[in-house]
Design brief:
The protein has four helices and six strands, in the order ααββαββββα. By secondary structure, the chain is of the alpha+beta class. It has a single domain, classed as Nuclear Transport Factor 2, Chain: A. It is globular, with a radius of gyration of 19 Å.
Length: about 160
Amino acid sequence: MTGAGDEHADAAADIAAVEQANTAYYEAVERGDLDALTAAWLPDEELTVSCVHPGWPVLSGRREVLRSYALIMANTEYIQFFLTDVGVSMTADTALVTCTENILSGGPAEEGASLGPLVGQLVVATNVFRRTPDGWKLWSHHGSPVLAETGEEEDEDPTS
């Protein structure tokens, strides 16, 4: 017989494992490590994976999703994610992670420069994970850009 304390400990361990899987996904993208990124996603024999990058259509199927990351990595010289507002909720073998991706990225450097221009971007993301015998694997990633208002319009005097 297991007590409520055991269930709470199991839930806390599951949440920690999901948080680690989520971090490993972002770290693989930062390193440009396609092998680690491939390992982060559900295998083909599981459910069909899906991905929505900001401004992209829905990508379905492991091959199409991983191809998109290969293209992004090939065309991104530098990328770093600072995750904020991370929340995890779960039921049985499915976990939902929501977060804000504070992204700093740069393209190829101009001739004679060591780094290309850096660009900051805010994206809200939802990552869905499934429990597998090999740990928590990404089932779906959906990122949407945050269209922040600058506040300049509010500061202007309409009578001038």
